[in-house]
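Sequence only, no structure available. Ideas?
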Amino acid sequence: MKKINIGVFLLLLLLSISAFAGTPPDNVQVTFRKMYPKANDIAWSQDDGYYCANFVMNGFTKNVWFDTQGQWAMTQTDLVSLDRLTPIVYNAFTFSSYASWVVEDVTMVEFPKWQAILVIKVGQDNVDVKYQLFYTPKGILLKTRNVSYMHDILGPSTFFIN
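Reply:
I predicted one. C-alpha cells follow.
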C-alpha cells in the first residue's frame, strides 16, 4: 500500500473544492442566461448563500445575484461616477451634508420586487471614514451606512432580502 502525504492530500482536496465553489447549479445558470443572453466572460462566485455573476456589459461592470433556487435577487451596476446619475439624484446629493466629501463609487442596485436604489460611496481625504448613501430614484436619502472599517460589499444581506 502506498503512503500518501497528508499535506499533499489536503492541498488537492482544497483545490478541488475551491474549483467548484463558484460554479452555480444549472437552475441559476438558466435564469442568468434568460436575463443576459449576450453576456460573456462571466466570473461566478458565492457569497452569503448566493451565487453572483460578475461581467461587463455595455461598458458597465455588473454583479447579478441569485439564490440557490435560481431566483434573481438583485443586480448591481457600477456607474463609477456622479455623471451617470439622474439630475434628481445628482442634485439631492450635491445639496446634502456629504457634498464636500470625495465620491469613491456610484452603484445602481435593481431588485425584482422593489424600486431601484442608487448607492453613493463617499470618504474624506486623509481620514479612514467612509459612508454609503442610499437614494431612491426620486432623490430621497433612505439611509446611510458607515463602512469605514468593514467590507462594504453591496450583497443581498445589505438589503435584508430573504
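The chain has three helices and eight strands.
Hope that gets you unstuck.
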